[in-house]
Amino acid sequence: MRATELGIGGWSPDGRRLVIDAAIGGNSDVYLVDLDGRPPVRLTSDPSFEGTPEWSLDGQWIYFTSNKTGRPELWKISVNGGAASQLTRDGGLQPREAPDGSTLFLADVDDA
After folding, report:
1. Residues 27-35: contacts with CB within 8 Å, 24+ apart?
2. Percent of all residues in the chain with a pLDDT value above 90, rounded to a whole number
3. Nearest 10 degrees: Cα torsion 36, 100, 66, 10
4. By the 8 A CB rule, do 22 and 10 touch?
5. Tens-place pLDDT, residues 29-56
6. Structure pTM?
């Protein structure tokens, strides 16, 4: 995988995978990277920016930022792939789950 830009989102809770965002062909998407040497798994494929990924504490979800609605919003997608779910409607960046999993924190788009 050759990326013109690469962002490391973090380790999975079990320490076996990384979530990253990578710009390949000018478009940034979210990927899972296994430590066993298998090729990265692409989780997003929209023609918009998807990045700043973060693991959920239970290891089942990846939170990320996408501008596919015209402004940065927070989304989540299963680590098994599938359709992403939009979590914010008034903007959001840099998702971080609280240590107890009860709250998802974000940076306000207007303050960024």
Report:
1. 30/62, 30/64, 30/77, 31/1, 32/62, 32/79
2. 62
3. -30
4. no
5. 999 999 888 999 999 999 999 999 999 9
6. 0.89
Give the integer Cα–Cα distance in Å for 86 and 66.
9
* Segment 64-67 long-range contacts (CB within 8 Å, at least 24 positions apart): 64/9, 64/21, 64/30, 64/95, 65/92, 65/93, 65/94, 65/95
Residue pointed to by tokens 């076996």: 16
Both structure tokens of 91? 């903007």
44 close to 79: Cβ distance less than 8 angstroms: no
